[in-house]
Amino acid sequence: MTQDEALSVLGLKPGATRDEIQIAYRELAQMLHPDRFPDNAKLRARAEAQMRAVNEARDVLLKGAGRGRSASRARSGSGTGASRPRTTADIAFEAEARAHAAETARLTVVGQARTLRERRRGMGSLAAVAGGVMLVTSRMRGTVGTLVFSVASMLVVWGIVDVVMLTNQINVLERRARNLLRQRDAAADIARRARA
To answer: What is the pLDDT along the chain (196 residues), one digit of tens a residue?
Structure first.
């Protein structure tokens, strides 16, 4: 993964500090973590793939950001991790990072839902065509008619089952997208109020 790809995955701009990288990573990891889909193996597998990309992006950017002090430590004047009071600028920055991470995660979820809708449409078409073939061959006699009817009926059942499963997955992703939209708007509102 290149630095530009890593920046895109985490939703950052070139020149991001270690703190910005870590905050963006943490926000995305919380929103895209596979544990959010405990009851759906397919969505969990997709989330695991996304987390691998997010982890790789973080590693690429942190390696490129150097081993120097983080921006917050540099601002506080101490490399020993001395704490400093949080300012409204810190709160605004973290809220903006959270809003950006929520939007990035939402776009990922929306893309997954779009892909599943296309697959569902294809499986519905397969089931419809197989149903037509099944009706035509139901009148045929002999081995070929029976064989074609059997295969067509299996395809109809497979298509219907897959359409139902895909519909459930799409519903889960749509709920997740709505939640992420609410999180994005809430974080953006916090950032606006902190900046005011």
So the answer is: 788 888 888 878 788 788 888 888 887 787 777 887 777 777 788 888 888 888 888 888 888 654 443 444 333 444 444 455 667 777 788 888 888 888 888 888 898 899 999 999 999 999 999 999 988 888 888 888 889 999 999 999 999 999 999 999 999 999 989 988 998 898 888 888 888 7
For the record, the structure tokens of 169 come out as 């997955």
Q: What residue type is 2 in one-letter code?
A: T
Q: How far is CA 138 from CA 19, 68, 153, in A?
A: 67, 74, 10
pTM for this predicted structure = 0.60
Q: Which of 46, 30, 147 is nearest to 22 (CA)?
A: 30
- Separation of alpha carbons 111 and 11, rounded Å: 16
Q: Which two tokens stand for residue 104?
A: 């990035």
Cα R_g (the chain), whole angstroms = 24
Burial class (CB in 10 A: 0-12, 13-18, 19+), 159: buried
User: Angle, to 10 degrees, between the axis of helix 88-137 and the axis of helix 18-32?
Assistant: 40
Burial grade of 63 (CB within 10 A; 0-12, 13-18, 19 or more): exposed
